[in-house]
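Repro:
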Amino acid sequence: MGGVSYKDIMDYKKLKSDIIKALLENVAFDGLTWNVVKETVAIEGHSPDMADALFPARMKTVAADISAYFDSMMMDQLENVDPEKYRIRERIRIAVEKRLEVMAPYKESLLHLTRFWVRGRGGLSASRSVWLTSDMIWNWAGDTSQDYNHYTKRMLLSGVIISTFVYWFRDDTSDLTKTFEFLDRRIDNVLKFGQFIGRFKKAS
């Protein structure tokens, strides 16, 4: 009996991606609930059992997969960007900007996702998702650190991402200018804090 083929994996990923995309359209109007997930799966032409197969932990899996969906879109956008042309600070800014840009058409839906996380039902899932986003960005930016710097960088960037996303929800400008300005300030603060940590480590 043969194992799972590459085609099977790609078909599964595409199926899940298609469901997530359709779900994001529905969530804006109906909210983020398990019933909406099942209805979306049915609308896309699949049996009700498919929802449990795709999202075994139900809403926690759905929330994590939505974040992963936008991570994938962000990385697609970054394929056309040569990180070597930019300083580290600029690489981080560009990556977070790309993440915001791919999220922008789904702002209302993502507000429902944030409410799910904030209400305590998906706190750990939220933290892990933000960490994975941060890790992808640092890896793309060329970070190869293996010591405490590896975790410190991702922890600090996770804080930048969370605070910037929260600010973005309140930003009513169409071009995200205010959010990008806020992002610049947060990156500056984090870089200064990171330099302080580095000096502290050397002195201890």
